[in-house]
Amino acid sequence: MRLRPLIVTSIALALLPLSGPAYADDPTPTPAPSVSEPAQPSADPSPGATDSAAPTDSATAPEDKVEDGLGVDGGTARAIVELADPAQNAPVASQAAAESVDVVLQPQSQTFMVVEGTAEELAKLAEDPRVTSIHSDRTYTPADVSPNLSLIGADQAHAKGFTGTGQAVAVLDTGIDRDHPWFGSRLVNEACFSAVESGVTSLCPNGATSQTGTGAADATTARCLADGVNLCDHGTHVAGIAAGTGGVAPGANIVAVQVFSRVDDEDVCGEPSCLLAFESSLRQAMDWVAGLTEPVAAVNLSLGGSLSETDCDTSEEGAVFKPKIDALLAKGIATVVAAGNEFFEGASYPACISTAVAVGANDGSDAIADFSNRGAIVDLFAPGVDIESSVPDNATTVYSGTSMATPHVAGALALMKQASPQTPMADLINTLKTTGRPYVYEANGAQVTTPRLDLAAALAGATPQPPISQSPTADPAPEPDPSDSSGPSPEPDPTDAEPEPTPTSSTSPVPLPTVTVTVTVTPTPATTAAVCTRGTTAKKLSAKKWSVEIHRSSGAIPDATLTCYLKLISKSSKVFPEVTKASSLGKAYRVLKNTKTSKAKLDSALLTAWLNWAHGTNGTTTVTAAEKVRLSGKSSATALKKAAKNVIKTVK
Q1: Which residues of 201-231 are buried (b: 16+ CB within 10 A; e: fewer)?
Q2: Terminal alpha carbon distance of the chain
Q3: CB 610 within 8 A of CB 533
Q4: Which residues carry out catalysis?
Q5: pLDDT of residue 558
Q6: What is the pTM (predicted TM-score) of this model?
Q7: Helix, strand, coil tally for the chain in percent (to 5)
Q8: Which of the ends of the chain has fewer CB neighbours closer than 10 A, N or C?
């Protein structure tokens, strides 16, 4: 099983629920509308429309249809099987089942199904000419988690009567506290799409993989609770920012969609339980929203996956999600996505898609939040530090993250659409970008200007406020360098082979993100949950030195920071932790120390390089190329050794 999370941190939203009832199919492919040009209206999808994300090259060789790495190290893998025609869904599924491949999802009228099988079974399935490609059912995590309304001018908009009345915001997240006083009677529609498999539980109240109608997105069910703490509070917090009584659009309606699943697997989560959203669930949820009849201004996705420095339209994941984002935009619905909290010069999937609205976070002093992703592909910044909003049990709490910034923009678009309902959504998005206060800063070696949301200026058509130069944070003092003479080479303690991360105080210059998967909700005021982000030291360490750091109490970097690094690596790497288990400090230690085989030596080199990246160094081209060698079932020992040698050169 390969669980690839997407953005929010440990509490992050990740797995989306799977749908079963009929919902809108993708419209017939049309030229992708640009967010800088008016979107052209398209006809409603016909019942026989196909999923435009599916490739159609029937001449592709069977071995080229299967994504590298699926089941490469034995066991079964959960995979999406793309089909050329939705009419082939049932016959292909029947054939697969007859050949002992487990068919776990068959969405109605869709050009894909989800199966679980071994590498050999998936290769056999790829021989069917009706199958166009097979790839992992990727997963996404939620992005981590007053004065913010005043900063963006929302208070001025409310005073003029713009509250989002007549519009709705669709929140694809962890569901919602349905009777929270911040929402009143404005919750107008609900759905749940939640994938299941071994160790993964549906969060739909009915226990199935899909549910629609009243109560479908309830975030207060027993499956949302772990040791008395609500794992599903993220969606309620996000919805409150977008359209709660204390949010940006307090008059807008809310469409709540639960898209996560509960995962009770410490190898995947790095802790006993977490939430993840599967690609298959997200695809179904976006189609369901596209088929709604009520006016929806924006879809809010405060979640994310792997990272990209440039727009990712032509990537495999981009090819799946861009047609869905474009279909929503053609219907007048913006897709607003968290850029991510990795202190990265780029954005996570699917925020990196050009027609999504990628949102970074700023603080109350009009500075880019230190954890926020940034760069040319980020469209807007919005408040994301110490944001108070609703959480289950009629309470409020304070969270920080691009998850909190994103609903500011989604709510702003509801106000913009209320004020000008006939204006194409692409034009409304462009207005937010051209009237926002410019942040000027350096990213990827070039000067970048990204607007900060200014709703008052956008509604008035005013000129932007003066630009603000964003000065980079001063480099910290040099970090202690563990050397070979600092003590005996640590060996695993057989009585404690799995060290538990123990957050501690430290004067180390490395940021100390407290990775909080759950937060105890208390009435305001509440404590802010810290955000897990990359370090800023940018110091390369060897595998031997990283093993000193990761072994309990033997290095200078706190366990909490190292645990954060492993979480970031799991979002960006295709090898860790799905193929090679490195989700905990103990397992990461063993990966670093094991160099007995060609594969093990490459794994050690790759983990070392990724740890350096998480520590603040840039550049992953060599690492990415080496991962392709590792994931290929055809790589020889010589190829593995060569890839390891290339990676080792980058860490010296």
Answers
A1: bbbbbeeebbbbeeebbbbbbebbbbeeebb
A2: 34
A3: no
A4: 173, 234, 403
A5: 86
A6: 0.68
A7: 30, 20, 50
A8: C
